[in-house]
Design a protein that fits this description.
By secondary structure, the chain is an alpha+beta fold. The chain is built from 11 helices and 18 strands. It folds into 3 domains: about 5-150, no CATH class; about 165-285, no CATH class; about 290-359, no CATH class. Helices cover about 30% and strands about 20% of the residues. It is elongated and about 70 Å long.
Length: about 350
C-alpha cells in the first residue's frame, strides 16, 4: 500500500478486513478507511460519558467523520470518497438500530447480539470491545474464545426486525379478504412492472391485463395511494391498500422527517420505499422477483441487485457491506461483503424467500 502502508495494514488486521483476490489496492484502501471511520464515529457515542451527558449531537457525530475523512484524503490523495459519507454512515446506523434518536441528538443502543452460522452480529458495542467489521457492521466469529458466546443470542431476523414469514405467505395474507370494487384505471396511475427488465423503472404506465393481482399507485410523491388491482375479463377491479401497510415515515426518503433525524441536510439514501415489501412479495408469488447475484472473490463476495429489497432488508445488507464505489453516494445496487458474513446473511434471506444466483 506504499506510503503510510503500515497504518492501513494495521487497521485491516485489527478489523479483519481482507483483500479480494482480484481487488485493486485502491479499492481495498477505500474499504479499510470506510470501516475505520465507521468504527471511530460509533465510538464517538461514548464521549457523552466523559462530559456527563446522556446524548451527543447529530452534528458532532457527522463532524467527527468529516474531520477524519479530510485527514485520510490528505494521506491518500489517490482515493475518492464522497462528502456525503457522514450522512451515509449516520443513515445506516440510525435505520438498523445502532443508536437511539432524540431531537437533534443520538445515544448508543443497548448491547445486543444475534448469531447465524457461527457469525455473531453485534449492536451497541463500546470502544473497548474487540470487534471485526464488514462495511460498517460489527461482528465476531464464534470460535469458543470470546465472552460474547455466553450471551443468549437473538436471531438475525428478530434483532434487525426482518419479516418473520416468507414473501409468498405475506402476499397471501395481503390479498386475502380483498374487497374488490369495479373502477377504471386513471391517467395518473402507475402500475407495478411484473416482469424484467427492472433496470430502469419498477413502475409502468400500462396495467397488466392477464388476470394476475398486482399493484397500482396514484401520486407523484410519498405518501402515495396504493391499490391492489386485477382485470376480470374487461373489468378493472381494485382495492385500496391501507396506508399503514404501505408507508413508514421512518424509512421515507424525506430529509426532515421528524421520526428520522430532524436533519437539515439534503442527503437521501434512496433506500426508502416501504411499498417494496409488497411489490417483492407480489413478484415472488408469481416467480418473477429477480435473484440476487453474487460472485466470490477470495475472502470477499461481490453482490448485485436487479431489484432492491424492502428498506429493513436493504439497510441490513448495506450496513454489513461496502459500496462498490464511494466517489458517488448513495450506492445501493452493487455491494461488497466479507465472505463469511455474506453467507450467514444469505441463509437468513433465503428463509424469507429471496433467491441468490452465483455468477
Amino acid at each position: 500500500m506504499n506510503k503510510y502502508a503500515r497504518l492501513l495494514t494495521t487497521i485491516a488486521e485489527e478489523f479483519r478486513i481482507r483483500q479480494g483476490k482480484n481487488e485493486s489496492e485502491t479499492d481495498f484502501k477505500v474499504r479499510i478507511i470506510y470501516s475505520a471511520l465507521s468504527r471511530l464515529a460509533y465510538a464517538r457515542l461514548w464521549d457523552k460519558l466523559e462530559q456527563n451527558k446522556s446524548v451527543i449531537s447529530i452534528d458532532r457525530f457527522k463532524n467527527k467523520i468529516s474531520d477524519l475523512l479530510e485527514i485520510y484524503l490528505e494521506l491518500y490523495p489517490e482515493i475518492k470518497i464522497s462528502e456525503n459519507l457522514p450522512a451515509e454512515i449516520y443513515d445506516l446506523y440510525l435505520k438498523t438500530g445502532g443508536f437511539y434518536h432524540r431531537v437533534r441528538n443520538i445515544s448508543a443502543a443497548m448491547f445486543n447480539i444475534a448469531e447465524r452460522d457461527g457469525i455473531l452480529f453485534l449492536r451497541g458495542i463500546t470502544p473497548s470491545h474487540k470487534v471485526y467489521l464488514s462495511g460498517a457492521g460489527f461482528y465476531l466469529v464464534k470460535d469458543g474464545t470470546n465472552l460474547f458466546e455466553t450471551v443468549n443470542f437473538k436471531s438475525v431476523i428478530e434483532m434487525f426486525a426482518l419479516p418473520n414469514k416468507t414473501l409468498q405467505a405475506m402476499w397471501t395474507e395481503i390479498i386475502s379478504g380483498t374487497n374488490w370494487q369495479v373502477s377504471e384505471p386513471s391517467n395518473d396511475m402507475e402500475f407495478l412492472r411484473m416482469s424484467p427488465p427492472f433496470n430502469k423503472e419498477y413502475w409502468q404506465g400500462k396495467p397488466e391485463r392477464d388476470g394476475r393481482i398486482s399493484l397500482a399507485r396514484v401520486g407523484k410523491f410519498e405518501p402515495r395511494i396504493y391499490y391492489l388491482y386485477k382485470f376480470d375479463g374487461t373489468k378493472f377491479l381494485c382495492c385500496q391498500i391501507p396506508n399503514y401497510l404501505i408507508y413508514d415515515e421512518f424509512f421515507a426518503n424525506v430529509p426532515n422527517s421528524k421520526s428520522c433525524s430532524n436533519d437539515t441536510s439534503d442527503y437521501k439514501s434512496y433506500r426508502g420505499g416501504i411499498y417494496r415489501k409488497i411489490s417483492c412479495a407480489c413478484l415472488a408469488a408469481y416467480s418473477t422477483l429477480p435473484p440476487i447475484k453474487f460472485k466470490v472473490d477470495g475472502a470477499i463476495v461481490r453482490l448485485k441487485f436487479e431489484y432492491l429489497p424492502p428498506p429493513p432488508e436493504l439497510y441490513l445488507l448495506c450496513l454489513y457491506s461496502w459500496a462498490q464505489q464511494y466517489a458517488n453516494l448513495p450506492s445501493n445496487f452493487a455491494r461488497v461483503f466479507d465472505a463469511e458474513v455474506f453467507f450467514a446473511l444469505k441463509k437468513c434471506f433465503e428463509e424469507i424467500g429471496y433467491t441468490f444466483i452465483e455468477e
